[in-house]
Amino acid sequence: MDFTTYDIILLIIFVVFVSFFLYRHRKNIKREGLLFLYKTSLGVKIIDRIGKKYKKTLNALGWVSIVLGFLLMLAMLYLFGRMVWLYVFQGDIVRLVKVPPITPLLPYLPQIFKLNFLPPFYFIYWIVIIAVVAIVHEFSHGIFAANKEVRIKSTGFGFFPFFLPVFLAAFVELDEKKMEKKKISSQLAVLSSGTFANFLTAALFFGILVLFFSLAFTPSGVVFDTYTYSAVNLESISSVNGLTVNNATYSQIFGLVNSSGKVLNEITVDGTKYLATSSFLSQQEGASDYLLLYDNAPAINANLSNIIIKVNGASITSKEELGKELLKYAPGEKITITTLFDGSDRDYEITLGKNPLDNSRAYLGVGFINRENSGLFWGMITVFTSFRVSEVYYKPAFQAADFIYNWIWWLVLVCLSVALVNMLPVGIFDGGRYFFLLMLAITKDKDKAKKIFKGVTYLFLFLLFVIMIFWGISLFS
Hints:
By secondary structure, this protein is an alpha+beta fold. The protein has helices at residues 3-24, 44-53, 55-89, 91-97, 109-112, 123-147, 176-181, 184-216, 250-256, 278-282, 298-301, 319-326, 376-385, 401-421, 430-443, 446-475; strands at residues 29-32, 35-40, 152-160, 166-174, 217-223, 226-227, 229-233, 237-240, 243-244, 265-269, 272-276, 290-295, 307-311, 314-315, 334-341, 344-351, 353-355, 358-363, 366-367, 392-396.
């Protein structure tokens, strides 16, 4: 059995265990809103002791937490605005991602929606990450509440009652009446402390991620993701697969190519031969003046795969190293390029061509797409994946390295995401009450603060509705 099978078995065992636990302790479980809450006194004494023992340190960190909470709220407002813009005006990216804008991060989400730019997300990742994020978040609330002398009534776990009974969150129940009597700054410190803890957890594990990557992976090849191509004038195309065309149009060209997405089609432009697959051409639907075509280069003709590890036996560990190695050879020379294919080496005998810019230099014809500066979508993805999306292929030092790396990657991403989302100025998040208290501090009027808070909440709900509408439209366009 592969790992996914074991992971699904673990998921089934967990659901059975939680179901049995809920049934056995049903008398101690109370429903509040959408959650079933199992309340205990577990950890209350520890939280209270920490909160009171390190009073000066926590008082100082409270101000740091307040400032960080404000900054994260501003960051989330910006990101939310960019997301609205993305869904309203960049439908092509929305169609590519396909995931609904309001989707909980559940096991196998990237696999289900075929989000190949994300690592796989297993159940074992999910349950450990949820536990770390929730416990750290809620215990931090409790510690700062104890520091501000707000009584902790209970701790416990929350269970979502719909579909499957799965562990959703930890919680710390505070004495809300006593909380409301505290100074605004004290309340802000307690409210922002959960986000503060998640942010620190993300920073800590990001450092661990960097350290682990440097120890567990070594550069072992070069990843290319395309072949070199040129822009040609449509009207200059004279033939497609030997068939003459005049005053060519996109639809005419596309109608003459082989429908198989992997078959190379020969397209002649002013006596020069170019190549294209139907899938490559379909990405350019609607082209009216120019068309991108692959150059007739050695790499594409040899169907070279995307990870080059050796050139004539010499190891290649960077794009620059590949370029230097190719400079040792002249056009027309035959070389052996070794690539990594499905975990094993594959050799290609390739005769180098002439570089279009300098006929005296050898030419292979591989290309690299730089996504680092290609907008918000790829920018967000590459924040934490820059180690793995560069042109360098990194080989894991041991079998479980990829599994551990992906788990830490997801932990960092989820911690930071929770820290940001939790500071949205909407009622269901800590950021909602945080925003209300900020407005109260500015206006000195509780009624005005409530009106502003309600107005902002309704605005966000309206914008979420708009996003969902445009997501739905993108599915059918």
